[in-house]
Design goal:
alpha/beta, Rossmann fold, Zinc Finger, Delta Prime, domain 3, 27 helices, binds zinc ion
């Protein structure tokens, strides 16, 4: 059997199989069951949204030997003939290929004869806006006095090109672009039935490239499957479609703010070596910029949520890149995408565009710095009441800082240099008034137990889920932190990257997370954060002091070291390692 393209093989055969277009299906099925069909329908909408598929299903439903019914049976001869394009009274005309002159003339001649084997003559005219004026006139004559046994289904991607006289004689349905989720679900179903493993990111990318059209999505999936050898990954989708890998695009947007222009040129160089088209490169950068802006402005949108679920960098960029700067850069990109069509040296043009975008970032950063510097300049009259007040506040702040750090040292775990620990926050309920950050951490470690830690660890997924529901960005940051210890009062989260930790600590974010903790855990309802490196240092210090204590006390034949609360705590946490140390010492 010849290979059947996926989009043909998976063409929906019943209303129930059509993805999306709920309003169209329902209205048509109601009309079918109540026997009040119009003579002419206009299906308008983007490519691949199911217009011709629905037209054929409608043609079958009105002519089905077991119907007319809200669904065709797909088993009777008539249904089969229509599915296979063999039913002579169901005529498909592609106005795009011949502009329809001959077909419409023939239509006009034959339309008056009743159908031979079926109830309705059905004319499906695809891309109807491509008809010539002459053909439109011929069609109009028929539509003005339609014979009772005829059903017209006109389909178009450009309804504004259809004469009003025709439009006014049709019942019109607007087909919506399919959502990414709708396409991905269908692709998943099809890939599974083909025995092909496809990672979600790959299908998301296909759906995104298809721009809401199922046919393009299926064609691309088809190509990737034949290329991919059993497993469909995002890289393969990008290779087949000529796209830029997501991590490259992310790197580009990161480099725009962080690095010098040489990083951008390196990326451009790399894309050239991989044979990417400069025009495509610009389009991909523009596309990702759109995601950044979307995620900044409305992170709660379904498509943004779907994207964030597999692209954590998007959240990071959306949080960190300033709005005005990104908009200005997008403007540059958008213009460049347009101009790229006419330039003679696309590579130079691309590099120039990247450089301009980098300059925008530079200038914006400089302006921001100048602004904050201006704010720091002391008032001109040094002895004005305001200046004195400012001075006093500064002194007070300094004093508080000194006191805090003294408190921290006094209670620090081992007398080593204090570890930077943050536990601040608007609702740090777990802390006693006057607790220093280090004090709070130390207390947490002393009061924590494996039971509490397990309890929190077991429910942390749930905390993350609820945080995500409330604010997907906060989740994107918080997810970097791991529950390392917990007491009845607080959880210790260990972070791998500083930006994730710092953003998690922002008062508004902390407040939200702690509210969720209260809801899910009851207690503990507050948290402290440390970096991975600091946590490892703490562990070493904890072991050192426990081991030292243990050694001293063993030597003096005093009560068993395990009775000492500090040692007991250390053993609980770092049990095996403490043993090893003692044996060595
Ligand atoms: Zn049938």
């Amino acid at each position: 059997m010849a290979y059947l393209a996926l989009y043909r093989a998976w063409r929906p055969q019943r209303f129930a199989d059509v993805v999306g277009q709920e309003h169209v299906r329902r209205t048509l099925q109601n009309a079918l069951s109540e026997g009040r069909l119009a003579h002419a329908y206009l299906f308008s909408g983007p490519r691949g949204t199911g217009k011709t598929s629905l037209a054929k299903i409608l043609a079958k439903a009105v002519n089905c030997e077991r119907g007319p019914a809200p669904e065709p049976c797909n088993e009777c001869d008539t249904c089969r003939q229509i599915s296979e394009g063999r039913q002579l009274d169901v005529v498909e005309i592609d106005a795009a290929s011949h502009r329809g002159v001959d077909e419409i003339r023939e239509l006009r001649d034959k339309v008056k004869y009743a159908p031979t084997a079926v109830r309705y003559k059905v004319y499906i005219i695809d891309e109807v806006h491509m008809l010539t004026t002459e053909a439109f006139n011929a069609l109009l004559k028929t539509l003005e006095e339609p014979p009772p046994h005829v059903l017209f289904i006109l389909a178009t991607t450009e309804p504004h090109k259809i004469p009003v006289t025709i439009l006014s004689r049709c019942q019109r349905f607007d087909f919506a672009r399919l959502s990414t989720r709708q396409i991905v679900e269908r692709l998943q179903q099809i890939a599974a039935s083909q025995g092909v493993e496809a990672v979600p990111e790959a299908l998301q990318t296909i759906a995104h490239l298809a721009d809401g059209g199922m046919r393009d999505a299926l064609s691309l999936l088809d190509q990737v499957i034949s290329f991919a050898d059993g497993k469909v990954t995002e890289e393969e989708v990008l290779l087949v479609s000529g796209g830029i890998p997501r991590q490259d695009v992310v790197r580009f947007w990161q480099a725009l703010s962080a690095d010098g222009p040489q990083r951008l040129f390196e990326l451009a160089q790399q894309w050239f070596e991989q044979g990417k088209e400069p025009a495509k490169v610009l389009e991909w950068l523009l596309d990702y910029g759109r995601w950044i802006l979307l995620a900044k402005v409305s992170p709660e949108l379904e498509e943004v949520q779907e994207r964030l679920a597999y692209d954590p960098h998007l959240a990071e960029l959306a949080e960190t890149l300033p709005m005005d700067r990104t908009v200005a850069q997008m403007d540059l990109l958008r213009t460049a995408v347009q101009e790229m069509k006419w330039v003679e040296q696309p590579r130079i043009f691309l590099e120039l565009t990247l450089l301009k975008m980098w300059r925008v970032a530079q200038q914006d950063a400089e302006a921001t710095q100048a602004d904050s510097a201006a704010q720091r300049v002391p008032p001109s009259e040094g002895d004005s009441p305001l200046a004195q007040l400012v001075q006093e506040v500064r002194q007070l702040r300094e004093r508080v800082r000194q006191l805090e750090s003294r408190l921290g040292d006094g209670s620090s775990m081992s007398g080593h240099s204090p570890v930077r620990v943050s536990s601040g926050g608007a609702v740090a309920t777990g802390r006693k008034v006057g607790d220093s950050p280090n004090g709070a951490l130390q207390r947490l470690l002393q009061e924590s137990t494996p039971e509490w830690t397990r309890r929190v660890q077991e429910r942390w997924e749930q905390v993350l889920r609820q945080v995500k529901q409330k604010r997907v960005f906060v989740h994107a940051w918080l997810v970097d932190g791991e529950v390392a210890a917990a007491s009845r009062e607080a959880v210790l989260l260990v972070f791998k990257t500083p930006i994730h930790r710092e953003t998690t600590e922002k008062p508004a974010n902390r407040q939200l997370i702690e509210a969720v903790m209260r809801e899910v855990l009851g207690e503990p309802a507050t948290f402290l954060t440390v970096m991975q490196a600091e946590w490892e240092q703490l562990q070493r210090e904890g072991m050192d002091s426990a081991a030292t204590k243990a050694d001293n006390e063993t030597a003096g034949q005093s009560p068993k070291p395990e009775d000492d609360p500090v040692v007991r705590k250390a053993l609980e946490w770092f049990g095996d390692l403490v043993e090893i140390k003692r044996n060595r010492g």
